[in-house]
Amino acid sequence: MELLIIRHGQSEADLLEVHEGRADFPLTDLGKAQARKMAAAVAKEYPPEIILSSTLKRASGTARILQEAIGCEIRFYDDLREFNNGVLAGMSRKEAAVKYPLPKGGRPVHIPIQDGESALDLRYRAERILREIVHDYRDYQRVAIVSHGGLISNLIKAFLNLPVGDFAFPTGDTGIHLLEIRDDIRVVRFMNRQGHLSYE
């Protein structure tokens, strides 16, 4: 079984210098163009049999563009949404730094931001949804997952059985990771591939 994990394209929040997280901004025109390039590359090189997507607009819009290129079924999961950043969602970074400054030494992994989830909560959610996908879609050869940077990083950590903190796996706009479960072996085929963005 292969897991093709894809981050959404550029969203409007990227241009506004705000905390995004659960704030539901759509793709920009550039984000849509990025998604079309990603979809063309995926359709040619590693088309999935099914697409699973976050319900937030920037991811669902990316997933729908991919679906148009592939023609396969798409299903939406709330559990594939980005980190729940509570009161920070949609707030400018300058305002957030004043109203909700990070504690000295950073926020402990078990303590959430107000109205949000903790880093530990996010990791548990990623662990749970990964196990659900691997179990529920075990008869598929390749499953695409369209999600967000923070959740994707935690999906990879869950896949590799890494601890909650100390590791991060950044993903650029429409970056692609290909992971494989082969018998009892977990294989990383590639990470954060973005070569498609250089295509004309």
UniProtKB/TrEMBL annotation:
GO molecular function annotation: hydrolase activity
EC number: 3.1.3.-
Cross-referenced InterPro entries: His_Pase_superF_clade-1, His_PPase_superfam, PGM_Phosphatase
Assigned keywords, A-Z: Hydrolase
Pfam family for this entry, one: His_Phos_1
Name listed for the protein in its UniProt record: Histidine phosphatase family protein
